[in-house]
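Now read this:
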Amino acid sequence: MSHPDGKRSASDVGDLLEEPAAKRAKIEDESSAPKLTAEQLEALRRRAEGLDERVEVSDDEVDESDSNNRGQRGGRGGRNDRNKEAAEEDEGERPQGAADSTERSGPKHNYAVLFGFLGEGYQGLQRNPDAKTIEPVLEDALFKIGAISTANRGSYSKISWSRSARTDKGVSAIGCIISAKLMDVPNMVEKVNQELPNDVRVFGVNRVTKNFRAKLKADARHYEYIIPTSCFAPSKFVASEQERQAFVFDGEMRKRVEEVQAVFCGTHNFFNFTSEIKGDDMRANRFVRRFWCSEPYVVEGVEFVTLGVIGQSFVLNQIRKMVAVVVAVVRNRQHLDVVRGLFVPTRERNIHMAPGEGLMLREVLFTTYNSKMKDNPINWEACIPELENFKKAMIVPHLVKSVRKGLFVDWLNFWDDFPMDYDALKQRYLESPLYEKDQKRLKWQEQTAAIEASKKAAAAAATTVAAEAK
């Protein structure tokens, strides 16, 4: 007999016990509950009738396949036991100097952690069991100071660990963010830096809302690529040796670089700028807000410019290939249609990535989050002097050393040995639907500009007439 509340009465249990063995076995097989013996069923009936207080079920008598289900339901031997086992396993691997991390407990709060690192010697930021990366180094330091408990160590899901961006091998950062639910530690920044190597630094921590996730709340990422100006000198294919030796990165050259960079702005198919996505995959479409070039500056006798780029997100290797294309088009004096041809989803394999040593994650923007959290926004202004010092002391000197070792010369020589087919790329663009689409857009922009100019001229004329009338 069924009941609206889904419960069975004592008579129902008795009816179940009186059913044929075959039918009872079928019911037991279809149930997600552990297999019970006849004695246990009798005890269940007695409990339903109020004759016994509880039913004892031994873990040894429960089928092993049900153990995970029982743990998820919070039964005996469930999550608490698994956490205890995980803690015992971590105990043997726990670094020296972290003895009080096992005893310390308390409420966790969600934090955004601002940190930077020199990418040399690391194979990226994100955790990888087979490689040396940044995240385990930072997690280990947080564990040692008691911000992460032994039970939660190594389990990013338990503390809602979320990274704002990924980085390639050798790429550095001064504005990377992770969010995680950490236990409060007085002077957290100072203490965690004592446990970190010199090439990884935490600059600040900021309490955030409990649902904040660095990856999901980020509106945009700001990267910088620091490159020697000599990379923009004309190639041997378009200039004499004397002309190349006399090269100067002046205002005209900077203007030319930014003309090429402007083609990348907006939404485009960056299929040719990565290796993991097919041409018709929507994930290849990315929006670039800005792409610009700084004034030249000199560090230890080497002249550099910084190419800054801001975008919502980037596919694997996209920025390094964007920089490579800018350099190739400028130094070979090619038409901007070469860049547009690369947005056609036909594979171009001769895009040789710029070296990872020049790329740096500068900042992660949380504009939308800050607009809603005006009383407690994510604000790192107080940290800027320290992160700039880290950049000057750790990242730039390493880059200068790489330049003097010939890293960029070797890269440019490889470009010269295996160039892109510039003529084919231009033709590809002219024959693609992109060309017609761009022509319509340019015509619309010209018409809009003409209308705006006409409005300004009419306003100026009206102002002149009004002035004469007075």
User: Anything to note?
Assistant: Confidence is low (pLDDT under 50) at residues 1-11, 13-33, 50-102. Residues 102 and 260 are 56 Å apart (CA to CA).
